[in-house]
Amino acid sequence: MNKQTLIILGLLISTAFCLFENDNLVKPITTLEQIEQVRNGGVDRLSVVIYWHEDSTQTPTIEKPIYDLAQQYEGFFSIYQVDCEFFSEEEIKYCGHENTVRDLPVVEIFAPPSSKTNPITKKPNEVKVLKYGGSIDAKSISTFAIPHMPSYVIRRPSLSQLSKNILSQVEHKKVFLFTNKEETPALFKALSAIYRYRLKFVEINQSQTDIIKQFNISNFPTLLVAFINDDGQVQGVAYQDQFKISKIQSFLDKYALKEKVVVDFDIEGRHEAGDSSKQQFQSAFNDEDEETKEIKDNSVEELKQNKYDKTLLQIEGIVVLHVYTEKEKQHAEFLPLKEKLAEASKYFEFLADTPEKVAFAESTLGIKSFPSIKVYPFQVEKKANSKYVYGHNISSKTIIEEIDEITDDESTGVSDDKTFQMLMSSALQEGKIVQILFHAKPRIPLGFRLASKGTEYKKKFRFLNYRNAPQQLLQQTGIHKVPAVSVVFRNVPEEEKDTPIKPEQVQGTQYTGKLTYKDYSQFLNIFITKPGETKTKKKITEIVTQQDLENVCMKKSRICFIALLNGEPELRKFSNEDDDDQKSKTKLQQQLQIYDQVKDKIGDRPVTFGWIDAVCHSEILAALEIYEDNLPNYILYNGSQKHFSALIGRFDVENLENFTLRGIQGKTRIQTLPQELKLTDHDCQVQHDKIKKQREEYERQQQSNNDLEDEIAREILEEERLKKEKIEAELKSERSSSKKRKSKGKKKQDL
What we know:
Layout: H1 3-17, E1 26-28, H2 32-39, E2 46-52, H3 63-72, E3 77-83, H4 98-102, E4 106-111, E5 128-132, H5 138-145, E6 153-155, H6 159-166, E7 174-179, H7 186-194, E8 200-205, H8 209-215, E9 222-228, E10 234-238, H9 245-252, E11 263-265, E12 271-273, H10 287-295, E13 300-302, E14 318-324, H11 334-341, E15 345-351, H12 355-363, E16 372-376, E17 388-390, H13 396-406, E18 412-414, H14 417-429, E19 433-439, H15 446-453, H16 455-460, E20 461-467, H17 471-476, E21 484-490, E22 506-511, H18 517-528, E23 540-542, H19 546-555, E24 560-565, H20 587-602, E25 608-613, H21 618-624, E26 633-638, E27 643-646, H22 653-664, E28 671-672, H23 684-750
Parallel strand pairs: 1-3, 2-3, 6-8, 7-8, 13-15, 14-15, 18-20, 19-20, 23-25, 24-25
Antiparallel strand pairs: 2-4, 4-5, 7-9, 9-10, 11-12, 14-16, 16-17, 19-21, 21-22, 24-26, 26-27, 27-28
């Protein structure tokens, strides 16, 4: 077997594990709690669950149709995938046994009920579980699933019900669909599930002329949001764009509550608000102000006239210089340019506030007018002769286009499979990590080009770009959409790097982030930074407030690791750290010591560490769909992309270290949050006291119930005893009577 074949085998081995991995649309189920939540109605939308196993011969054929389904019906269904490699037959009937694996993949539909209880029997409605038996393609599955979608829509209320009971319910704004269709459209059902308990949805038919006239509706369909304004009047805002779910969501987001307020009511007027309706909701952050704060940081270095040759001209990457005088305003496009380029460039400014500095700017820097922006291209040798100067009337868009034009590409282009295999095999034998950009457009993304030119990156990586690669190769490498970067490397000890490549040594992953230099370089740096041999200076920060979360997970690093622990006051009474007796330490202290050991083993890699009292901040558990019974737990969190990955297994040093390293290298199973994690401002002492009282009350109720059950059991046993004695007495009486009859009969015979 030659090296090229080995490489392909290695890729296939790695991509079998990566089926559906790191995708926002097809979410992995990795615990029984997650599948139980779907089964028991813990999600509002209809769920499509795909069970698969890499040993099934049909597995490679399902990826594209499932992605097609997820993309075409995003927002309509929640689509989950279950890798049966991680479940037994006892846990999930489709998994575990080799005979059942042969029948995979299997698709199940979980349809939650539209109402909690049956209006006639008053019994709770259950989730319908439907096994899909058709062909696995987007059209067939959607045709089967759509009729079972739950609907949380109030259909065709009367004008009286509408005015007295629906519009008067003030917890939610109302979304009205005026339609000429007899059935509720699937799109409106989907929206009612997405915004359940954040908006209330009402459907009015064309035949309801009294309501149609009241709202002055002439076109169908018409979508509008209605609410009571400050003057106590009903105000309506009509939706004017295309009837596409993503566009409608952008419109409805302006009116929806940020958090759910549970209000169950019928249109006859009886409704009851949950506790959450009493909470005060914080206003959303002003994004524009936050962006301005981010731009006005200290990353712009002042250019010293006497150090120009030793600083700016010695930088390898792109440099943007902002030159202005006291008289002239700063260049209006400098901050927008800096925001768009981000870490793709270094930034300097030069204030020409003396005649000498003006002369330096004109003669040495080549500035002809003020204010101006000068761009220095990549590579040190090109810096001194740069002629790229832009006056005050040039836009940041024009400057970026020119930067894109003057930045060449140093990755190796590939045009056929044979060359691709040869280059990849050669790079792996050299010990390089291969970064393969699969793309379709002639122009390679700027972030990838800049990375391919970096001296430090060239030492560690081999950059390849493959335009219009064959579909079969894309499927083998797990790529379903381009542009995308596949990463292939050889996992082998240093002493074995010169030995022939073995299939099991070749591993792969994918970079799924944006191809900006900022995001992509952070990913590359993960492979370059080595764990420190000594303890890192990093600390494990307790995250108590939303600001703490942003400081730990957003400002310091794109990737952070968070331990979810029980931080109740009694567990915070720590003993001496140097005490070797683990029994004298609380569970929380032991868990934090384990976490600290893991942090030291990871060293100075570009990640941060924190922990949250998840019993106090139960809203975090709810957002992550993790139960309190699963504490302690440990997650990877990427706030910028709203990604997280949760630990499976024991909370010990070995498991946490392995999970952390895999997370850093992008090898964990990624799940996507609908929004960034948000911490509520709790007084945790009060929260724990409240929880403690609730538990004590629950235990008292349980004891009371147990006592009652014991009393009932004693009464039942006593009744059973009395019945038994009565039956025994009757039997005894019958036997006695029978003996007497026999005795009389015998005497007659004797006579």
